[in-house]
């Protein structure tokens, strides 16, 4: 029977708006999510009968209701492939993206919360790495694959993911529409509206020009042994690259639902760099000049931005090909060791460590350089097992995978050190290194073990690459347990704001705001490309101290300060009062607001170090300094770089209203919103 009186539906409509915002992601072909207003009857669609069957149901519901349909569907069903007239690859999202063909009755989509779908929503394993994922989750192993990921699609209807509470209530109303009313009015309808949006057909450059979105990106930190002068030497030196991904934006935050990457990797990398530096200092060679490492240098990179350092890795690869990063040139890099997630997989692998290689088994015979072969040998001698993944499985997602994707130079020059063997231990974008499922001492012990292996492997590879034999005993290198413990306490354990001693001695303190779901936007809200965050500043400071060629006894009295005119974030420490261009101002943690809102930090120490911030950004962006805005460089847009920019507004009000329509009577209720479908792509 029809419900004609407000009292009859009062209980059903008694939940309040949560005020969450909406994030729009722009791609090279258009935008996903928040495409505009919509009004339609609620209809629960499933993928059980395939996308075509779901489309037929939506068409029938729209015909009976005399209006458009707001589809209610789980993310798994929305993005999953199914049989149908369009073939096995058809999915609801692909049919919607195909100019709505077959889905003309659908005017909007509500994604249920807590869906079990994987992250990339690719209907196929677009890379051999998919073989390493859990059963049914191979698609989640590939970051934004070209051509078939949701971020490559253009949707002309708004797609919103609901909160868990709203999902329950909306499903009840959708069921009532179908089973009690057979989609005959009166019906529950959903209405989308937003005051902060652009039309779904707007392009990325339009959104940038209207300052309605900014690039997703970040700042990586790169450091090189041998001192600042080594980068300007006439004769180039062989290089071994030690790398890890990081999500610097999530440092110092309470453990909320952020897009946090595997921070145990960057902790182990920092500890490995420290072990190498201590060994060099012990033989009177602070900063590890080339003679200490047999004629070679070691470069260390903490790579930032979205999905295991993907953007940072690709940006670094471009810089190395052009020789624009601290004088490093790609052809000089003889070996690469990436430290992946090493602290999250103890239940998966019993605390063991594994080496993964690209498209072949990890063996000296498959490596493209003697240094890379020596790297594998040193890892094996430090109790690191070769992965038992299929021989053609390839690099796991991360730095090495992103760089090899761009350039075959990296395919057979190194390995990824990981705490898991043949499969990802968790879903895509869920490798949050927290201490919930195992003991803190065990976690720290495994990270220290990985740091020791990384230090020895890097050292051995450098000695072979240099060809002269180093002055330190690589097999004696051991990570400092106390340093590892301090790093874990600072960067991995949950701390609301900067509280750890390691950070308070080095960077400006103060509590940080709640973390964003994503690794970093390139600005907030100003689109200036030189902004850094405290997480970046800490890693920069740690690496600057590690690779410093300044003897510890000579730094007393050489104090320095530097100023950030904006007062919002930390600027590059090289803009300092140090007397020499080769020096940076480290550990200037005593900061205070100055004139005009500037932030001045003092009582730092001048050290000679080759360290720099590096942009982690799509090549499609250019900064127009004259007009202070981002531009899209169309010639640099690649078909496999679908993720461009993220809105930075807090969309309030952004309303989803669920209404019962009977004649002219509207009973309205605001539903709290989660994130868009594209945010689901990035976060699940």
Automatic annotation (TrEMBL):
Keywords: Glycoprotein, Membrane, Notch signaling pathway, Signal, Transmembrane, Transmembrane helix. Residues 22-193 form the Nicastrin small lobe domain. Its main location: membrane. Pfam families: Ncstrn_small, Nicastrin. This is Nicastrin. The keyword DNA-binding does not apply. It comes from Prasinoderma coloniale. It is a single-pass type I membrane protein. GO terms for cellular component: plasma membrane. SUPFAM superfamilies: Zn-dependent exopeptidases. Belongs to the nicastrin family. One of its GO terms (biological process) is Notch signaling pathway. It is found in: Membrane.
